Amino acid sequence: MNRGQAVADLSIQLSAVTMIERAQEIIQRALRSTGLTHSTIIDEAGMDSLLEAIAGEGGAIQELAEQIAVSGITDVSTTTTTDQNTTDQTAA
What we know:
The structure is a single chain. The chain is mainly α. Helices cover 77% and strands 0% of the residues. It has one domain. Helix 1 (3-14) crosses helix 2 and helix 1 runs parallel beside helix 5.
């Protein structure tokens, strides 16, 4: 996966449990700790390492990172969007 796309997707996912700025900080810190800062492509092993580093934040961020690791980033974004839509409809 293209690193820029991976960072954007992870930022969106993490923004469900924290502010987007904090999500981006967490991702940048994880990229540095995994040595992926200058990589243009993140393979499956790199993504696993990145998610493990993100999970090190603990709490809801850890839970979400673990969910992404198990489900894949695309599946989680679909679930999150569906959950948000259900919440929006319930509130209306």
